[in-house]
Amino acid sequence: MQKDKLLKGKPVADHIYGQVSERLKILKEKGILPRLTVILVGDDPASKVYVSRKEKTCQKLGMDSETLHLPAATSQAELLQLIEKLNADRSTHGILVQLPLPSHIDEHRVLLKIDPDKDVDCFHPRNVGLLVSGKPYVLPCTPAGIVEMLKYYQIQTEGKHAVIIGRSNIVGKPMANLLMQKASAANATVTVVHSRTKNLPEFTRQADILVAAMGRPEFVKADMVKEGAVVIDVGINRKDADNEKGYVLVGDVAFDEVLPKAAGITPVPGGVGPMTIAMLMHNTLTVAARQNQIAID
Predict the structure, then answer these.
(1) 31-117 and 141-272 share one fold
(2) CA atoms 118, 67, 23, 267: torsion sign
(3) What does the record list as GO biological process (predicted)?
(4) Which residue of the set 54, 113, 118, 226 is catalytic?
(5) pLDDT 10s digits, 157-167
(6) pLDDT computed for residue 1 by the predictor
(7) Is 155 annotated as a binding residue?
């Protein structure tokens, strides 16, 4: 394996945690302890693991964390009422509703209910609009984490062609908006392709920076990638394997195939994954500081 090509998330996440720790001291000196409240509805195994990691990271950094685990049968009205209560609670700085939600709950209505000043996921329409206009309050965690990786590994984006596979509200759309802004680690020419794009490989082969975020295991093959491209793999998929777990984790990119052609590539696991929680911690600190009108930058 060509290790110099690997764009690992852990050293970048550790860099972010270092920044968070230093800025956290400013808030603590003023008697403020940032608090993140996560709402988990139901018993989705992947969501439970992810929520547990968030809680442990908060504790490790010295921030306050609360997880409210609700039954899958919780009604939409009950969930909305809980969010309204947290919105009014001055000791709760950040609110995160873990997705996906049970099918009987309208995800959009739930995200709309969260106070945008406490929206650490950047899913509220107001915060999405601020992102599009180039005046963001907080940034969506995974796309922001990718931008931090590009900065850390000194990957040039200005004037480059970035192609994003996937148009989700969580990764694809906000990633496109971040990369096209007039900002550092941005100023790129951006193309978004998706499941209805005709001749999709023709677009991906033009990419200087290719972001794969469509949730299809090992979809991106070597013949879809330009020689010397930087490949960012956002996917996390289970693939059957003859081991104790019965599966291995793979991304949306056929890693072994693409590695020889790429100038840089994120592994799965160990690539983009660590950045999502790191940026969530950054966002929790940001909202706590802003709610108390304290400058930390």
Answers:
(1) yes
(2) negative
(3) L-histidine biosynthetic process; methionine biosynthetic process; purine nucleotide biosynthetic process; tetrahydrofolate interconversion
(4) 54
(5) 999 999 999 99
(6) 40
(7) no
Give all strands (DSSP E) within 42-158, no chain letters.
64-70, 94-97
At the fourth CATH level, the homologous superfamily of domain 31-117 is Leucine Dehydrogenase, chain A, domain 1 (3.40.50.10860)
pLDDT band at 248 (very low <50, low <70, confident <90, very high): confident
Please tell me the CATH superfamily of domain 141-272, with its number. Answer: NAD(P)-binding Rossmann-like Domain (3.40.50.720)
Q: CB count, 10 Å around CB of 208?
A: 19
Out of 115, 121, 208, 252, which one is annotated catalytic?
121
Q: Is 49 exposed, middle or buried (0-12, 13-18, 19+ CB in 10 A)?
A: exposed
pTM over 0.85? The answer is: yes
Q: pLDDT of 81-135, one tens digit each?
A: 999 999 999 999 999 999 999 999 999 999 999 999 999 999 999 999 999 999 9
151 SS3 class: helix
What are the structure tokens assigned to 264, written together?
């840089």
Average pLDDT, the chain: 95
pLDDT at residue 178 tops 60: yes
Q: Where do the domains of the chain lie? A: 31-117, 141-272
Known binding residue 172? Answer is no
Q: Which among 141, 159, 164 is positioned nearest to 211, based on CA atoms?
A: 164
13 CB burial (10 A radius; 0-12, 13-18, 19+) = buried
Give the model's confidence band at 2: pLDDT under 50 very low, under 70 low, under 90 confident, else very high: low
Question: Is-catalytic flag, 54?
Answer: yes
